[in-house]
Design a protein that fits this description.
Shape of chain A: globular
Number of strands of chain A: 2
Strand content of chain A: under 5%
Number of helices of chain A: 11
Distance between the termini of chain B: 39 Å
Oligomer: heterodimer
Structural class of chain A: mainly alpha
Number of strands of chain B: 0
Largest sheet of chain A: 2 strands, antiparallel
Helix content of chain A: over 70%
Strand content of chain B: under 5%
Order of helices and strands of chain A: HEEHHHHHHHHHH
Number of helices of chain B: 12
């Protein structure tokens, strides 16, 4: 008799996927959990209460992460959309696209280390504006390449049609191009939001520890061996993307092919 | 007409300003620093930093180590994702699974690194369970699974990070490229399940996604957070090595860090050119 092994593998996969979420929430509720105890001696909401205290600064980190990520997402999506039109209708578009890939695939932290001199000179070192600008520089090529598939002959023809019918540029954008690209713009917005939300290396270099986003907090707590607060910060970091996923998974994962 | 051209050029100008100038500036700065032209303690052109880096071999060791880790992680992730797609595509279509398989994408690298450490370190969750079950009596008896020589923790984290993405990608290609229909056609022509997997499933999925597979290899090559948490003192992965050298108080080391940064940037850029350079079609291209 052949045993159907698929349900076992699938159940295991579900357990493996859910385990990190459960474990991190569990760890964030624990304290005084010493080796070799399998169960912590304290389990409760004590750590979570500190989120609202000024002591750990977690609420502040959450808010600065939110402000930074929203700014990066707005700027990079808007500029990516508008500029990608000129790039992908340009006769040299293939070369320009190739150039956009360089900053896209370079490690952000190495990029930041090489750029830090210029940020220092421009007074953008160790402040939130600097972090937004630096993250924008890495999110912009992503947004630009993201819209490459949008600008095609059909869209161009629509635009020409608007002009033929007496519409101006503004009308072409508001009545045709933006409604057509609405779905893509929304996905790009969430994608660039997540690029910024998850960013650590570049933020640590340009922010020099003064701009404490959630990822920076996670690492600080790991360094202090304060794993309970580390797990708490991880929960705050994961929570928004999961909510986003729950409402609509296509925001988090764009159609790639 | 001329006004239109001008407007289009403004867009390209902005693209150059945001997309190309920072990259070029960063590269030139690192290059000048590596040759001692700029930098606090440097006083003119010298090749000594390049000679030191090449002679010490730390770069090549780190590069080899990074390539190996990225390669193993990509091969296992792609292989695993292909297998899961092939075997479980119907089940993964269900409402429950189509939500659940997206969940890992909500976890960033730094959290994966932290979680792997919590699970596999000597005082971690698995060590506690092993102690409870009587496999070990002291924490030190638990095997080195993080900050270890074989980079087990790093590879595991990388797989956890990218395999879900590849599963979603392959499921997407499977649907869009109508692999199902092609498989049924092959089957009706007498092909076996094995032949369908080898002649239809694998070639279509790999051919459609190989650029992304290479891109993910490059991303892992430059990964920072995971090896920072789970790596060992030496050899280190490239990004960790570069940042460690650049942040040193020893001013010579900073220049050497920039040498490694320049070498890394060149490798990545050459790969980008090989991947995305517009290719001229040959007369008999198929």
């Amino acid at each position: 008799m052949r045993i159907n092994w698929k349900p076992f593998v699938l159940s295991l996969a579900v357990l493996l996927i859910l385990f990190p979420f459960v474990y991190l929430v569990f760890l964030s509720l624990a304290s005084e959990w010493r080796f070799p105890d399998v169960w912590p001696s304290y389990l409760g909401l004590r750590n979570w209460q500190t989120v609202f205290d000024s002591e750990t600064g977690l609420l502040q980190s959450f808010l600065s992460s939110l402000v930074i990520s929203l700014s990066v997402a707005v700027f990079s999506t808007a500029s990516g959309f508008l500029i990608s039109k000129s790039v992908f209708y340009h006769p040299k578009r293939k070369t320009l696209t190739l150039l956009a890939y360089f900053p896209y695939i370079l490690s952000p932290v190495v990029f930041a280390a090489c750029l830090s001199f210029f940020f220092l000179k421009m007074g953008l070192f160790g402040n939130m504006t600097g972090v937004v600008v630096a993250q924008f520089i890495i999110a912009f090529p992503y947004a630009l390449l993201f819209f490459s598939s949008f600008w095609n002959e059909k869209v161009k023809n629509y635009e020409d049609l608007v002009a033929t019918l007496g519409g101006n540029k503004w009308q072409a954008y508001t009545k045709v191009l933006l409604p057509l690209a609405k779905g893509l713009i929304l996905i790009c917005f969430f994608q660039t939001f997540l690029i910024s939300w998850f960013e650590y290396g570049l933020t640590s270099i340009i922010g020099i520890g003064k701009v404490q986003t959630l990822t920076i907090k996670v690492f600080l707590f790991i360094k202090e061996a304060n794993y309970y607060y580390g797990a708490l910060s991880c929960c705050l970091l994961i929570f928004p993307p999961v909510v986003l996923l729950y409402f609509n998974k296509r925001y988090v994962f764009k159609k790639l092919v | 007409m001329s006004l239109r051209i001008k407007k289009a050029n403004i867009g390209v100008l902005f693209f150059i300003l945001i997309g190309i100038v920072p990259f070029a500036a960063a590269f030139i700065y690192a290059l000048l620093y590596s040759f001692g032209v700029t930098g606090v303690a440097n006083d003119g052109f010298t090749l000594k930093f390049w000679e030191t880096v090449i002679a010490s071999g730390s770069f090549f060791k780190s590069l080899g180590f990074s390539v190996l880790i990225a390669l193993v992680a990509v091969v296992i992730s792609v292989g695993g994702a292909l297998w899961i797609t092939l075997k479980f595509k119907e089940q993964l279509e269900s409402r429950f699974f189509s939500f659940i398989i997206y969940l890992p994408l909500a976890i960033p690298g730094i959290v994966t690194g932290f979680f792997t450490f919590q699970l596999f370190s000597k005082g971690g969750f698995l060590a506690r369970i092993s102690h409870k079950l009587g496999f070990i009596t002291e924490a030190s008896q638990f095997p080195d699974l993080v900050n270890d020589g074989l980079a087990f923790g790093i590879i595991l984290s990388f797989i956890a990070l990218i395999m879900p993405f590849f599963i979603l990608l392959f499921l997407n290609v499977y649907k869009n490229e109508r692999v199902e229909e092609l498989s049924i056609l092959a089957q009706s022509l007498g092909a076996s399940a094995n032949q369908i997997a080898k002649k239809i499933f694998l070639p279509i999925l790999i051919k459609k996604t190989w650029v992304l597979i290479v891109l993910y290899f490059i991303f892992l090559l430059g990964a920072y957070e995971v090896p920072l948490i789970l790596g060992q003192e030496s050899p280190q992965m490239l990004s960790v090595l570069i940042i460690q050298e650049i942040k040193q108080y020893d001013l010579d080391k900073i220049s050497e860090g920039y040498v490694v940064a320049v070498l890394y940037t060149i490798i990545v850029s050459v790969t980008a050119i090989a991947l995305f350079l517009p290719k001229r079609k040959t007369a008999y291209a198929n």
